[in-house]
Amino acid sequence: MYVVESKGGAIACMLLALFFLGTWPAILTLLERRGRLPQHTYLDYSITNLLAAVIIALTFGQIGDSKPGMPNFISQLSQDNWPCVLFAMTGGVFLSLGNLSTQYAWAFVGLSVTEVITSSIVVVIGTTLNYFLDDRINKAEILFPGVGCFLIAVCLGSAVHFSNAADNEAKLNGLSNSNKNGTRAVEISKSKETIPNKDRTKDLEDGNAYVEKAKFGTADFLIKVENRRAIKVFGKSTLIGLGITFFAGVSFSVFSPAINLATNDQWGTMKEGVPHLVVYTAFFYFSVSCFVIAIILNIGFLYHPILNLPRSSLKAYLNDWNGRQWALLAGLLCGFGNGFQFMGGQAAGYAAADSVQALPLVSTFWGILLFGEYRKSSRRTYVLLVSMLFMFIVAVGVLMASSGHRK
């Protein structure tokens, strides 16, 4: 079994996790903006998310011989370690609820702000819990100022969202006024029907072809995105999106401490003489429960959709191949990202590994590049956005500097 033991190796794992975990949300957001139902996307994503855990367990978890007190993955499956297995599976349940919630929050609040708020909540709650669970191996005088920076970023993220929402409303009002003057006509589709399969195929292949004629940040662009996207958000309260976002953040706060308990058994739940769960075994059980919850909830949402989404079916999902390869890729990225985060956390402390919650830096890059977020916004929005990102950069640097070394 391969074990990350050096501080440098742990930081390398964190950086890989940071890139993977910041990229997969952008892929799912892209599919939703092109009209693919989130239920279909999340079912595909869940399959490869579990596959990534299996690959990690059968490779890193099986390399070489077992070490004293650290059996290989397959050997550990038959051990009497159910108390810690339940901790790992509880973490998977909360991760699944958080990921499922953010899939809807992205439509309302935007990719960048959603990731900032959820990640900051994770750090404020989850990192504090991990610090005490890890027997304080991280430097408190460095760690908690970093947590404070993330808390400030939450406030700045909310401010960015409200400022940008006001900017978008002003753009749309300006367009409505020009319509009243007879200069142009714009229609916002309120249909709940899905986009015809032929049209959706073209959109998913051509990328942003459907908004090519509208410049990023304009009212035309906002309207054309709304007409194509699966989740219609015009006319809905922004508080809905923020409410979903905060629920997701609280859910995310639980999964890392749960894995910490599963691998290190700080509460002494295992029988004497039974080895602790290795990180690969814990991650496997974690991913299995994440997969089960995702499948149950999303099949239910196919037939009983929320937020006025169109009704679907299992047959329709199986026949929907438009964008499926991207959803499958997103699942792999998320799975490997979580795996690397846990591998780094086991070596340097899970509190320090929460530095990967700086993933909004990556997500914001994709949000601006792919989706035109914050284009043609007000100066106030730009100032708030830069301040938010700056606070994140400071916070992740401080959190990584607090890394300790588990004996």
TrEMBL record:
GO terms for cellular component: membrane. Keywords: ATP-binding, Membrane, Nucleotide-binding, Transmembrane, Transmembrane helix, Transport. Its main location: membrane. It is found in: Membrane. It comes from the Eukaryota. It is a multi-pass membrane protein. The chain crosses the membrane at residues 6-30, 42-60, 80-97, 104-130, 142-162, 238-262, 282-306, 326-344, 350-370, 382-401. InterPro entries: UPS_plant, Ureide_permease. One of its GO terms (molecular function) is allantoin:proton symporter activity. Belongs to the plant ureide permease (TC 2.A.7.19) family. This is Ureide permease 1-like. It comes from Tetracentron sinense.
